[in-house]
Amino acid sequence: MDEPLLSVRGLSVHFLTGVGVVEAVDGVSYDVRRGETVAVVGESGCGKSVTALALLGLVPSPPGKVVGGEIRLEGESLLDATPERLREIRGDSVAMIFQEPMTSLNPVFTVGDQIAEVLAVHRDMPGDVARTEVIRLLALVGIAAPEQRVDEYPHQLSGGMRQRVMIAMALACGPKLLIADEPTTALDVTVQAQVLELLARLQRVLGMAILLITHDLGVVAETAHRVVVMYAGRVVEQGTATDVFARPQHPYTAGLFRSLPRLDTDEALRPIEGSVPDALRFPSGCRFHPRCPYAMPVCREKTPLLAPRGTAGEPHLSACFYVDEHPEADLFPFAAPEAT
Amino acid sequence: MIAAPTELQATAAASPVAASYTELVLNELRKKRTTRIGLWCIGFLILLAICAPLVSLDQPVAWNEGEGWSFPFFGALFNRLLFENAIDVFFNLALVLSPLYVAAVVVARRRGVSGTRLVAALSLVHVVVFTAVVPAHLGPLENPLHRSRAIVEYRGRAETLTSAGHPPTALFPLHRYGYRETNPGESVNPPSRRHWLGTDTEGRDVLARMIYGTRISLTIGVIAVAIYVVIGVVLGALAGYFGGLVDGVISRLIEVMICFPSFFLILTLAAVVEERSIFHVMVIIGVTSWTGVARLIRAEFLKHKELEYTQAAIALGIPRRRIIFRHILPNAIAPVLVTATFGIASAILVESSLSFLGIGDLSVASWGETLNTGRLEGKPWLIFAPGLAIFFVVTVFNLVGEGLRDALDPKLRSR
Questions:
Q1: Which of B309, B322, B324 has the most A C-beta neighbours within 10 Å, making it the best mutation to test the interface with A?
Q2: pTM for the full model?
Q3: In chain B, what residues touch A161 (CB-CB under 8 Å)?
């Protein structure tokens, strides 16, 4: 197939703190193709948000620093782009929506002014034309009575409405890629579903790609075509949503599923033992090995590489020595440790 | 519960009034009684400053001694021999144009233009017109409003004519004295029927000087504060937003400035500047007092640049200058408004102090200067009048400042 819309290769981001270097993102690679939804999943602090921020050159620097790798948007290297070029790309071909709709809108401007500003900055659109366009956008994201809402201030809107407004702002210039950083975390469950539905509908209508960053596997299952699972700054597994959900190929992914409530079994939830490692002192070798029921001596010494799993269709990759040795093992039930 | 969720949200969020932040604050401001009184008093002071010639001047609005009507008042407003100072020209022009401005306000209000925008637009118009009026020549043409004609002594003439038996038909301002009229024969007279508040060493009418003094005090307060708010906001915004080296340099500069005892710095500067016009005094107050504003703005920027809406604006590709001045500044400016209001009061006080110490501008009707004369002469009417005037204005601005502080504090807001 043709080249992917977005291609990330070996991206590494470090934070230079007073007490040491935090390797927040370490050699992360993934692609996003046109029109598809890719979900980046992981616990808090696993580097998923930093990866997304790095795409737009938004990693706070100092202390953050992109130390290696390559990010290409339609072939154009974003890490080599000038700040001015990056600014042009932001909000235009790549837009982003954030976790906190309550505070992501500027309290002193009306909703309409904020959307119109994006159009003015990127499209040089004069006020009266922009107003019609803003109303169209508000209607597009499912806001009732957009003609009235356009003149209201953020404090007059509910959380779900604000998130819709944020989405309208992000969509104003018809981006090719929408980065959604935990778009539903701060919302009520019913509103979450609406927002996800809206994103899916907009994707069908506008044909943009979505990079969805979340820790919520339910959200992933509902919306994503492909899944990238991250743990402690590294990608541990990636593949189509169907493959990953049906047959996880990394003990961490399996562990995540095990810790979710399910309706089809009566089994007790089993959380992953231990806790997320200290970012200043990641374990050697595979960073998951202290918590992994399948850990082998080699896991402590060497870093596993992403290797293809399965056979047919879309590639399904995971980085695990245990799976390397036991390609047919079913990780889902978390078989007794050291069963070999 | 069958209604579509979006409709539910719509009704839940719909509030009766779509009020902007400014309107919210203004409503809050009107709630407190002392603040309301303060606002009325400021309005009265501004009105008095604009209408000062109607209240106190020796030129009649209309004059007829039997040979037809003349209107010397309007010519007098732009006569350099009566009103030399640019501040006076500014206010006199406002007086002449006030019917136009009032008409504009009435029309615009009927069309639903917001009040704050209207005030801003009219102020801008007035400043533009003013700058066109001040110079002596407009291109090759002589400025018709820049005139120096001999002054006719209408007051004296009216008295002579009255005593001669055929009084003129004349409409004088309420009080028949200008603030620059000297009369060596009436030096340091106590209050009388002619001079309600007495006269100073040069025989000038104290009441007239008090009335015209409001112009000086208001202008000093507003312009000096405007100068230091602009300096403080720009430096503070840069320091807070960029941090790092920029912040280091600006913060050290602020610390150095704070180390100087400010009034003595002002005194030194005022003593060094050779030609002290009232504008020099404003600039001197402005360039020495910006540190407080800069620190406030810096702190606000440090907070606001981390907030999500700033991050969102960056992620949407809004240019940096717009983010600093259009997105963050309106959110960060509230505490500055409060200090600015208090600052007007203290700037007025500083100017009075400078005039009191004899290093102000002697060509304007400064309250501090009259106070100083009173101290030297030891005459109570020369001390009480300006003292009370200064006290009144400073109190009024502090009342409003306090009200503004409460109105901007969401914790005290009763909704």
A1: B309
A2: 0.81
A3: 9-10, 13
